[in-house]
Amino acid sequence: MACRHVNKYTNLLLSQEESRAPQIAAPGLECIVAGFIAGDPRRSEGMAWIATLGVLPEYRRQGIARLLLLECEKQLNSARLRLCVRMENTPAIQLYEKECYLRVGTWTKYYNDGGDALVMEKIQVIEE
Ligand SMILES: CC(C)(COP(=O)(O)OP(=O)(O)OC[C@H]1O[C@@H](n2cnc3c(N)ncnc32)[C@H](O)[C@@H]1OP(=O)(O)O)[C@@H](O)C(=O)NCCC(=O)NCCS
Predict the structure, then answer these.
(1) CA–CA distance, 38 with 72 (Å, rounded to integer)
(2) CB of 92 shorter than 6 A to ligand 1
């Protein structure tokens, strides 16, 4: 699924009041889903994609996105990782740059509203 379609779900989830309702993680253990990430392991293409990432506003700037990103990268287990992000999304771009993603291209008018996407890539060492 292309990032722009997955991002629709991210935006929807981040805007829903229901997203803040406590979930039962285990008997007697309630938790809040503060953030989420999805990875797309496209092995045939030789690279994996970070498809979407979001953290509820009230839980931001606590390192949650960074933790989600690092865990997703680990699970994707791909030497080459890519993602796309809105050109003006400074918080996300700063996060990705801090985690060693480089700017490798742009997709003009990628988003439905005509916004451009920045394509970013990270090469990581995979332990056999
Ligand atoms: C982008 C987003 C996922 C960051 O989530 P977060 O949990 O707040 O991020 P973290 O706390 O892990 O921040 C890690 C780093 O990202 C950068 N960063 C995060 N938010 C930032 C902000 N508002 N302004 C500038 N830099 C920011 C910082 O470098 C930060 O490191 P620091 O806190 O040590 O300075 C969150 O703002 C979000 O959900 N935004 C809406 C959805 C979105 O844009 N998703 C990305 C789509 S590609």
Answers:
(1) 7
(2) yes
pLDDT at residue 20, rounded to an integer? 75
Whole-angstrom distance, CA of residue 119 vs CA of residue 92:
12
Domain residue spans in the chain? Answer: 3-123
Q: Which atom in ligand 1 lies closest to the alpha carbon of residue 50?
A: 48
pLDDT in tens, 83-107: 999 999 999 999 999 999 999 999 9
Q: How far is residue 17's CA from residue 24's CA, in Å, rounded to a whole number?
A: 17
Task: Name which CATH class applies to 3-123.
Answer: alpha beta
Q: Whose CA is nearest to atom 28 of ligand 1?
A: 95
Average pLDDT, the chain: 90
Q: Is there an atom of ligand 1 within 6 Å of 62 CB?
A: yes
Residue where the block lists tokens 């997203």: 19
For atom 27 of ligand 1, which residue has the closest CA? Answer: 91
Total-model pTM: 0.90
